[in-house]
What does this fold into?
Amino acid sequence: MSIIEVSSTGLGEFKDIGRDKLLRMFRDMLRIRFFEERVEELFLVRGLLVGPAHLYFGQEAIAVGVCSSINPDDVVLSNHRGHGHALAKGIPAKYVMAELFGKATGTCKGLGGSMHVCMYPKLGALYSSAIVGSNIPIAVGVGFALRNTGRIAVCFFGDGAVNTGAFHEGLNMASYLKVPVLFICENNQYAISMKASRGIAARSIAERVSYGYNMLCYVVDGNDVLSVYKASLEASSRVRGGLGPVFLECRTYRLKGHGVYDKAEYRDKSECIEWYEKDPIALLKNKLLQLNILSPREISDLEDEVKREIDEAELFAQNSQILEFRELYSFVYG
Amino acid sequence: MTNIYMPRFDPAMETARIIEWIRKEGDRVRKGEPIVKVEGEKTTFEVESPIDGVITKIMYPENSEVKAGSIIAIISEQAVEGGEKPRVKATPIAKRIAEEHGINLSMVKGSGPDGRITKDDVIREIEKAKFKPIEAATVKIGEAKVLRRLRLSGLRKTISERLTYSHKTIPSASIAVDVDFEELIKLREMMEKSINIDISLTAFIVKAVAKALRKHIMLNSSIEGDEVTVYDSININVAIHTEDGLVAPVIFNAEAKSIEEISKEIKTLTEKAERRQLTLEMLTGGTFTVTNLGPYGVDTFTGGTFTVTNLGPYGVDTFTPIINPPQTAILGVGSVKNKVVVEDNDLVLKPMTTLTLVFNHQVIDGVPAAKFLDEVKKNLENPLILILK
Amino acid sequence: MGELMRVLTYAEAIREAIREEMRVNPKVFIAGEDIGIYGGAQKVTKGLYEEFGAERVIDTPISEAAIVGLGIGAALMGMKPIVEIMYMDFLPIALEQIINHAAKIRFMSGGELKVPLTIRTQYSLGRAHGAQHSQFFPSILLNIPGIIIALPSTPYDAYGLMKTAIKGENPVIYVECCLLYHRVKGEIPDQEYTVPFGKADVKRVGDDVTIVAISRMVHEALEAAKKLEEENISVEVVDPRTIQPLDIKTITESVKKTNRVVIASDDCVFGGIGAEIAASIQEHAFSYLDAEIIRVGAPNIPVPFSPQLEKNYMPSREDIVKAVRRVMYLEGD
It folds into this structure.
């Protein structure tokens, strides 16, 4: 199967997508960014949150690009770095925040935490795995159940997952069964401190998948939301059409540490600075300004609006209750 | 170390109450010295120390209801100087059963590994302790099912227990005879007029029975397993009805006493019974029972050789009483009623009563029993015999 | 009762339960290595491929993690998958999916998601298959909340427990015993029935000692009981049928009656199922015990291949008899 290199979108292609959609995507990316900034503050400055938090800084274009291209009844599987997926799929920020606070109003009633926030079946956010790569075989099962329904499963994972047994067993099984699954690999270049180019003993992820599993692969600039969107749209329609599973390698960068406390001292600061210049939100903002789709004033208003949303989300979370301990026993068996 | 056991007043009695610890834990006691006062249904009894020693442990406080045969105190030959009790190795179920039955585990030999006391070991110990006698006169019974420990053993309960026991273990037979009380009643009237005191009918019957027993001494006995003990003393248990129920104190040496004396004694015993003043001594040692009150024989006491029970006053014509174990026989007396009998080809009205003799067939056969009963009948129908020595 | 009965082997009973459920519920499907065209490595699923076709009887490549993942994903979407792990020895490859995901998704989703997945596996102890193809270690999963563990010993229980597993809403590890597949026959009703999880079965009533037995050891215990009867020892055999949930109530009622208990199963004694059962018994019925609780099981070594050595390794009816005599304080080992 071939590898399709998706080029960055030219200005011209913007018009095809439509203003509303663009604004939606912009707002969604802002929401993710401001949410993650707030989470960082709640951890590091105000000390109100505990546990892990794997922040999505710099990867917003992927979650938003993919989720904008699929249908509401398509099923998403996420991973430990899932705040972005959750918000992009449409889960209200207050429920995601409440989950981080461990409250009963959270997406998992406070029983999952940061690594499982993208679990809201009503909106198609099915399951989030904290074990790297393990959502892949499960996505295959989901795809199996969705055969011939016109719906697809979308599975997010990082560059770290492509070396796990689950990845290999899962992709092989997916191709073998020809299940309707869209695999989204967010190659943010680091698996904690392991550089992707070091640990992956293949020429590239896309080549591994294409040759190894005979799967159609797209390679996309993960910081260009429109590239991601277009590639995802095309890929998902092929999946829906019965091609079998399709793979998207989205190349991006993890702007912050692995987890909220990680200072990422194993990286070159200059590398980071380089990638900050390719900040996906800044990229889109510039395009919007360039094409006069939004004025600076409108952008600033929009930003304020989204910030308020985050404020409300935090307030909601703070004011919610936690579950009674004895209720926990009722969630084990049915 | 010697154990002091809760005495069993009677084979079917299950529990008794500790009234008072006369001596306390740590006291030095002498052999024969009373150490604790216990109570059965209506009797009190003082248990004496069997040895010189020190009371090292009292197992139950005053007012406890304790199973007969349980250890209630331990007396040591020497004073025990503090010191640690050696750890008893026993299985959990062994400990549980021992506790339930008041068995002191340090007295049990363990057959398990390393001397461990097992359930079977404790059960064996319980079986042994069941039959600790208080005096020679108390006789062992055969295997009786252990009933549940009762907190309140009212007389009623005991009576029903007696019934069960007797019914189960004794192959009894009964014979009855009708007796003409005309002469007896006449004699009684005469005697009452002369001494101006009421004389109980039962007294006559007791006397009649006592005399007959001397001639048919086999019925004046008790049986234990294969062994029959024939008594020389003729001590007759007489059933007395009180508010609380039936008691049967003993008229000792009934043969030697006059009817007047017997009657007086019956009265005294009745008063005492009503006031709950009967002691064990008054209730044990009987060789035969006369039952006054119906088919339930008597109550808890041992030692009687024959029991007389008279239900006549209560309007009962005939009935078949139950033997008072370990005695051999019991005589039941029904009410005196005017009946039509044939005499010299004429129909006449006579005051008749039915006497029913129930006897243990292991000890005596029908013919000798009938002979005895006939003797009693003869005595009652010719009552002057009773006055003569 | 007049119920119509049919006689099936242990394997047939399992197959019939699956077949019947596949007939009435189109969401039921089976997946695993060689279960379709080949009819299953032990022929348990024989005939199902012919009846239901490739859409519902999925032959998979060797990918235990993906097989279970397939089951989990499909179950999350409302299907009723029955996946097979050919040998219990292969279960560890899939344990990550089972322990981290199948067992916990319902909890982590606050009850919003369910995983009605049945994972069938079997243990081949006694067939000289060596250390990596003979293992039996259900107690490993006992320590993971969220998984039902079923261990049928008879055709009756096999059918009933499988029915309950498929109809239910929980992840079930259903552990079959290879030696029982084709050798053990039993009567089961013609009419559909289920065996509930968490309900032990008293397979033999007795007064002197309780034997809690699992899977193949149920049969060994019954044979031991016959032998002990000759010595006038009355044996009660209790088969828990599921160890999670565990019917500790029936077990302790039995122990309260007999005061003595021996636990018999094919796993290693150390850290095996018997450890949990023994701990629970002494917790609930301590003052009723007349002796230690003895566990009969395998020694703390891997399974040797050499057939005679394997035979020595396997717990047997003789071991049970010895254990019973021990708890009854009868003469020497």
Notes: Chain B has nine helices and 20 strands. Confidence is low (pLDDT under 50) at residues 135-145, 148-153, 293-303 of chain B. Chains B and A do not touch (no CB pair under 8 Å). The CA atoms of residues 94 and 294 of chain B lie 44 Å apart.
